[in-house]
Write a structure and sequence with these properties.
36% of the residues lie in helices and 21% in strands. It is an alpha/beta fold. Helix 1 crosses helix 5 and helix 5 runs antiparallel to helix 6.
């Protein structure tokens, strides 16, 4: 029997933030929707959603982009998980990660939030940190630049040329995680290129 997975792309709402490093999670979820020729619609839980499938006859995917700011993502994520009856172990959170180099994807389930306030808020709202994460590397800021300013700034010219590949890799990681599990996705995406 097919399961339902909730795949949440973290980011901040509005045009001011849509092309910033902090919104890479939403870019990945946009790619997943585009691959299925689907359009997001408003959902009363405070998010835009797409209801689709991994592939015909396979697991159902609910792709979601919270309408809230990153640091308060937990309320809409928990509401969506309740609405769709999705347990925490099938809530996939796609987010930016400072501690991973740009152009790198890492996956994990559970553990700490690593200072990521969006992940922290979701763990609090779900009352568990035990949910899978697709962590999309944005790297650390150069010099002494404040990390908060770095994540809210647009990608640089060199990064923008590789961004479509990174977003596609993130979408591939989500699909493999859902289809074959965390270990299979880690083996593929953690291996050196």
């Amino acid at each position: 029997m097919a399961s339902t997975w909730l795949v949440v792309g973290l980011g901040n709402p509005g045009p001011r933030y849509e092309s910033t490093r902090h919104n890479i999670g939403q870019m990945v979820v946009d790619e997943l929707a585009a691959r299925r020729a689907e359009t997001f619609r408003e959902q009363k839980a405070g998010a835009r959603v797409v209801e689709t499938w991994l592939r015909p006859g396979a697991d159902k995917l609910v792709l979601a982009k919270p309408n809230t700011f990153m640091n308060v993502s937990g309320t809409p994520v928990a509401a969506l998980a309740r609405f769709y009856s999705v347990p925490a172990e099938r809530v996939v959170v796609v987010h930016d990660e400072l501690d991973i180099p740009f152009d790198t994807i890492k996956l994990k389930s559970g553990g700490g939030h690593g200072g990521h306030n969006g992940v922290r808020d979701i763990a609090n709202a779900l009352t568990t940190p035990d949910f899978p994460r697709v962590r999309v590397g944005i790297g650390r800021p150069p010099g002494r630049q404040d990390p908060a300013d770095w994540v809210l700034s647009p990608f640089g010219k060199d990064e923008r040329s590789n961004l479509p590949i990174l977003v596609s890799d993130g979408a591939d990681a989500v699909e493999l995680l859902v289809a074959e599990g965390l270990v299979a996705a880690q083996q593929k995406h953690h291996a050196p290129r």
